[in-house]
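Appendix B. One record, verbatim.
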Amino acid sequence: MDEKFVQGVVGGVLKRHENLTLDSKRIQTLMVEIAANINLVSGAKSLAKTKPLSKEYLDYWTCDYCNKNTHEVEYDYLGNGTNHLECCLKAEELQEKSDKIMKTLNKEFENYDLSKSESNENSKVDMSATTKRGKNGIPKK
């Protein structure tokens, strides 16, 4: 047990009883209160020393957008599934911008004839490649 911790507990208990006369009954009460406080904190410390979280658990509680764990995030700050709300909102905003750009491009190229365009043999785009996707259909990084 840490000496400063014990001093803090004893000091706190004595402070609460500073205006009372210390007779044998009062000293007995102080001893019980000090022991109870030490046991309470010791029990809490032992709870904090639990075994590490499993990989499966941490993998489940992972944001699909930023790949950070969300197991300690309050439910008010989770978006869809186990994703951070902030990440979901950013993705939604990006999707809206992308949709707007695509709508503009579709409108600009609706009468464009691809059969009359030149082929680019140096293109680096592999249209046959498949992307690994995580939960919710989001590409994994």
